[in-house]
Design goal:
By secondary structure, the protein is α/β, with parallel strands linked by helices. The protein has eleven helices and ten strands.
Length: 272
């Protein structure tokens, strides 16, 4: 398993586990709890240590399931890195504090390892939001702060307002989705010791599968694994794929160990 580092040089898995669709989507679907808990338990048992969730996921129920799975597996909380996100409608200072308390309560935890602004909300000044976020760090309820879906201008603004180093900008990034990269976000993150967390990292059906398959065959891997390997071989890039299938979870985790040649990286760089 490969690791990258946070701004304080703390290691973090190059491939973590996303939790979107566990427990529901925009609202809770408790009929899927057994399936969701099984997926979380298998991910923990396979060796995932970074879990990414949000108050929006299943209207908070995803956080409840994640906390329950951690307790039921007996995993030491200190061995895990838990990220959650505050929704854009909760970016007023008082609402940020309440949202964080809600996430901690649902997770059954005393702190978050990382807390992100899920989406920007231009009707609420970032200055107000970061007053509350900085307060959460000072209180020990959050260890690292970051953002999600921020373009380069907003990322720079957040960086200026954050009293601790911005840890990540979580964006939609894959072989077939590179709009934030064209905006300059990746280069800026790499130059400023900020992790870029790629969500929805595997959209293989939207790219030229032939080239992916060619590289995959050479490495005795799947195209999905190669798409992940292409991401995490880039400096300061981590990713958070999700799967309910234990075999796919294991394959995703193993993708970090695939070493692509410079020629293969260039070949995949040319795909859209």
């Amino acid at each position: 398993m490969k690791y990258d580092t946070l701004p304080n040089n703390e290691p973090i898995q190059k491939i973590g586990f996303g939790t979107w669709q566990i427990g529901g989507t925009a609202s809770a679907d408790r009929s899927q709890d057994t399936r969701g808990l099984a997926a979380l338990r298998s991910a923990i048992e396979l060796g995932y240590t970074h879990f990414d969730t949000a108050e929006y996921y299943a209207d908070g129920h995803c956080e409840e399931l994640l906390g329950r799975a951690i307790r039921e597996t007996g995993m030491d909380r200190d061995r895990l890195f838990i990220t959650s996100k505050v929704s854009p409608e909760h970016l007023r200072a008082a609402d940020v504090l309440l949202a964080c308390e809600g996430s901690l309560k649902r997770l059954g935890m005393e702190r978050l390892d990382m807390y992100l602004i899920h989406w920007p909300n231009r009707s609420i000044p970032l200055e107000e939001t970061f007053r509350a976020l900085n307060q959460l760090v000072a209180q020990g309820k959050v260890r690292h702060l970051g953002v999600s879906n921020f373009d380069l201008a907003l990322l720079k603004q957040a960086q200026a307002l954050c009293e601790t180093p911005i840890a990540t900008d979580q964006i939609h990034y894959s072989i077939s989705e590179r709009s934030f990269i064209r905006d300059g976000v990746l280069a800026y993150c790499q130059e400023n010791n900020i992790l870029l967390t790629a969500y929805s990292p595997v959209k293989v059906g939207q790219v030229k599968a032939g080239a992916l398959q060619e590289v995959a065959t050479a490495h005795k891997a799947s195209p999905y694994q190669v798409a992940l390997a292409w991401l995490v071989q880039q400096p300061k890039v981590i990713t958070i794929p999700m799967s309910f299938d234990p075999q796919h979870q294991a394959e995703n985790l193993q993708a970090a160990d695939i070493l692509l040649s410079e020629a293969e990286m260039r070949q995949l760089d040319g795909l859209r």
